[in-house]
Task: structure prediction
Amino acid sequence: MTDPIQTFSLAQRPDLLPAFLDLYIPWPAFIEPTRLLVEWGIHAHAEHQLIVLDGDTPIARAASLPLHWDGEAQTLPRRGWDGVIEQSATDTYNRAELNTLCALEAGIDTGYTGRGLSQAVFTALRDHARTAGFEYFIAPVRPSGKTEFPEMPIEDYVERRRDDGQRADNWLRIHERIGGRIIALSHTSMTISAPLATWRTWTTQPFTTTGLTTVDGGIAPVYVNADLDYAVYIEPNVWVRHRLTDTPAEEGQGS
Ligand SMILES: CC(C)(COP(=O)(O)OP(=O)(O)OC[C@H]1O[C@@H](n2cnc3c(N)ncnc32)[C@H](O)[C@@H]1OP(=O)(O)O)[C@@H](O)C(=O)NCCC(=O)NCCS
Result:
């Protein structure tokens, strides 16, 4: 990689939209996080969609949407990731004060994972929120290491730490390292429901038995109903707040 990497918003570089969409981010097949953004968010809020280039090569992206929030954990969107998009659209059309930027995705192209880019990409998005003058910067974080513990309650999972005291989850660890603080949990952040035939194309599972099952890449179990020929997956998230100012009164306040 050449140095330094450069970051542009899609408002600055609309020509990079195809590259933004074509990045190969290692999401499991059943998570299709770009679809709603493509439909609405990217076009309505292009200035908050960032693409990272190494020279001329697109290597990562960071997506976010603005909404109104009063700073209280109790009033965060109850439906996590899905709820952020709904609320951003509602707040945008109602001309609410869009005082909060909410991160929705930080993704590194598979050719560039494991090189320490995630921290730089998320920091770029936080700095964008700061420069753009937002009051709050929040994220419904998908704890990516929870794929190893899909049946563990999220309350227990977030408490896990390594021997050195840092968070065991790699993505939560990055957030904490750059100053993020956990302020709430959501048990219903992203809902994916589909006929069993679709689930079979997404995974290698047969889905023949009614009940809970786990799938590769899932951070929660999938509920299968063989009689209805349907399965639903509801994943949790960890709400993290990043401070945008460095005043002494805010430092060390945590959440
Ligand atoms: C999660 C993701 C953003 C990490 O990006 P990355 O640039 O590959 O990660 P980094 O190289 O910066 O590593 C970040 C930390 O995760 C650890 N890590 C990296 N790959 C890992 C893996 N496969 N398993 C476990 N830990 C891993 C690193 O050791 C590092 O921790 P450390 O600094 O304490 O050593 C990237 O894999 C990705 O795009 N995943 C799909 C999208 C996603 O899940 N985004 C996050 C939620 S929106």
